[in-house]
Amino acid sequence: MAEFNTSVNDKGEISVVSLKGFLDAHTANVLENTFSNLLEENKYKIVVNFEDLSYISSAGLGVFMAFIEKVRENGGDIKLTSMSDKVFNIFDLLGFPLLYEIFKSEDEAINKFKE
Amino acid sequence: MKLSINLKSNLKLGSNSKHIIKKIVIKSKTENLSEIRNFISENAIEAGLKQVEIDDMILAVDEACTNIIKHAYKSYPEGEILIEVDYNNKKFTIKLIDYGTSFDPESIPDPDLQKYYRQRRVGGLGLYLMRTLMDDVQYISVPGKYNQVLLSKNLNNSN
Fold first, then answer.
1. For the structural domain made of B8-154, what CATH number should be given?
2. Residue A26 and residue B31: Cβ atoms within 8 Å?
3. Which of A25, A69, A86 shows the shortest C-beta gap to B55?
4. Do B111 and A94 count as a contact with CB atoms less than 8 A apart?
5. Among residues A85, B4, B101, B152, which is most buried (max CB within 10 A)?
6. pTM above the 0.95 mark?
7. Domains in chain A and their CATH numbers?
8. Contact A24 B30 (CB under 8 A)
């Protein structure tokens, strides 16, 4: 079975969610739960770090679509950072760079919230 | 976790190039997607494909199998998915067969991400990825009997 997990680190009012492993239709609910918990705590400024993510399928991409609207309605955003070329290409194929800000580094994404 | 997999393999000698065919049968559970990806990866490596081609095929097959599990079998976990790879030096083809509900792929339009954003829907992304990542995607459905998806990639290595 594919391994996937998330860890959340608060940096001020920004929550950094780090993804690790394989995000597919089996593991997507782990990320759903992570986002649900953040929203329950009224945390809407979210940076997702993809550095240790090895794989993503459309089920994983769907999780971002499912939460982005509610996050933005509450004045927040989900910003993405540190993707491998392989993972970025999948986001790109589906036109995600039009809907999400994607940064090279976690610091850039965090700083964008502070602007 | 132990999976119930029947592994068969055989060689078929064609008139001009050697075909290699390998099959597995896997139950329709999302926890088996990683096993499916490994099966595709191992065979694609053996066929000498480039990593970027292997990555494309793994994702296309994952998307196809996810659709089978969620839509053809409607998340019923005991359905069977037969996965067969067939390759020679010109083409790598993956055949997926299931015995669940049929659908007409022509009825699924390419996704409009802005519309998905507004409606918070994400269906259809998998089919779009399959069509984009593979050179050819063909569906054959015999309602009440089986559905078959053929995913193929042309191999450009002329050696």
1. 3.30.565.10
2. yes
3. A86
4. yes
5. B152
6. no
7. 4-108 (3.30.750.24)
8. yes
